[in-house]
User: Fold this.
Amino acid sequence: MVQKKTCAAVCALAAACALVLGVVAMGAAVTLTFEFTDLDPHAGQTMFLRVVDAATFVEVARLRVPEIPAGAFQIDVSPLETGASYQVDYFIDGNGNGAYDAPPTDEARRFFLSDVQASGAINVVHDATLTDIDWPPFIDGVVSPGEYRHTMTDPVTGISVFWQNDGTLLHIGLVSPGTGWVGIGFGPVDLMQGADILIAAVSDGVLTIQDQFGVAQTVHRLDSQGNVIQAAGIEADGATTVEFSLFLASGDPADNALVPGQTVGVILALHTNSDSFTSRHTARSTTAITLDEGV
Assistant:
């Protein structure tokens, strides 16, 4: 069971306020202060930053600095976990469109922090080295316009599917025109058989999501190795929105290994008002999506 995330105010700037988009507590409280320098040419521009657990690929913090206040400033990020290692991605919105564009349009960088043991300051070197960080969607249960690179709406079920991937992870958003469960299956061989199925429902503000697999044409069972990395969902205005991230290749025998650039057969299903995963679908359809080549 995954409970819907809430935003937590954990970012402070020395000379300006940053909007905190989301933070997930993971363990003992550790605060890291990222000290940026030599950003004078970018004063007034917007910066986006995220912190990812390097072992689990779970995004633990995402921040937006509306305007870089000066050439030198600080961002405090907490709570992080003692003993954990982190990947830190950030970019400066060079063209002011509010979205990520690969360098050189936006200046993007990535660095790693190994075995964090205590709170402290990290000097962020602002040099000429740029990296395409392939900024992913924010898994918060809300699909914002332009958040995903790809989208389609299935005419049979009415489910809107949003997706984006890099070379390792697949990010999915589903918007169902109902308040019951919604599901998607990847790589079916014959009806449900052989499909890697994710089914989710939101009840009283709490998201429940299960990793299942199709064992026969009309039978699917719970996967003992749940491989959802991160998920969130909300129910509002008669619709259900679910977002989650998966490994393209989890190594689980019950999962289909997905390949960047591949066109994947997809099952879509929903129940209009029941959150019970044993309730037969109200509508079902089969379609396909094409994955990005990956970075």
Notes: The CA atoms of residues 26 and 81 lie 6 Å apart. DSSP finds no helices and 21 strands in the chain. The longest strand covers residues 206-216. The two ends are 31 Å apart (CA to CA).
